[in-house]
């Protein structure tokens, strides 16, 4: 086994606390993932990635920097990964899905902040995330007030660039976003010393679209009955998409999909044909936030899709055609990104259509709406989701939770009651 302690130390990690973090993660992973039955063989690669979560991939980033390259950390799907790639830097999603660093954040931020905001900040102040430490720049956005103000504080500890994301999908909003993309390109070029060219951008978009197509293929396979892969494994793969090497990841997802094609043809699945099929919708679930999927699937249901930024909102949109110039491509990227139906927009009725469409097309028996605690955008939008699903006759369970284990018992009871209700 490779010893990465010297690398971690060089990145400025608090080694003792980092050991505690990895120890907890490994136990949780074994319990939740490795105990699943009938897993596809091609999940081996993704198990390996998790076993090396702070090892091999971080070493690749460190090596890239040693060779003069840059690493750019991202938090939100509105920040286009292809722009980062086109400028010669490596984009990495910064996960922020762990309870571990929340108490560190609460020494500075109000306790009644969203766990995603606290986890993002906590990982920096606790010096336990090698991805933040290995990033030359982290990019925030103005999607919600909690994040926006947290980035000001984060900027005191780490180089931060904040992109403004409009709140309305109007012509004015689009123009503002396009300006922000152009400013981001300038910032990236300053960082890397490399210009973004039309060819470079087209190539980078091709790489990102390859990844999106592979994830769409995987998602489409979950329409099958029985489902050939668990929701937990599917969620994990989308989470890994944010930080793995894009080309290698795409190959591995396509290899997994080949195996799943054969499973579907043979009628093999991970759950009985009659298992309740659930669509999860709402706030993103960053690594290692597996709580909801785990409790739903251990209650006998199977999660068939995520209307989420760790789901369809991440990979559904492909780039519309463009004139091949940098400006034309930026305009097409702006259109693609503004088709992400995040609750930070008002109005955001397209998201309601998305949820109904996914529930119908993936034959979901019910929807679980997931809002992170103190996430006002998704919690308030849940009211509209509830009304719309009621009018469509689609059962809904609304939950609000954080990253801790404290409410697992009551959540499990509510999930079981919901599953019992939809089985009748
Ligand atoms: S595009 S969902 S990744 S903003 S941090 S809004 S949970 S209170 S994450 Fe998001 Fe981009 Fe939208 Fe997707 Fe709520 Fe927390 Fe804010 Fe959050």
Q: What does the model show?
A:
This protein has about 425 residues and is of the alpha/beta class. It is built from 19 helices and eight strands. The strands form two sheets. It has a four-stranded parallel β-sheet, sandwiched between helices. A four-stranded parallel β-sheet has the order 6-5-7-8, with helices on both faces. Helix 18 links the parallel strand 7 (about 365-370) and strand 8 (about 395-400). Helix 7 runs parallel beside helix 9 and helix 10 (about 170-190) packs across helix 16. The longest helix is centred in the middle third of the chain and has 24 residues, at about 200-220. The protein binds Double cubane cluster. Double cubane cluster binds near residues 116, 117, 146, 147 and 313.
Attribute tags:
four-stranded parallel sheet; alpha/beta; 19 helices; 54% helix; globular; 8 strands; 424 residues; 10% strand
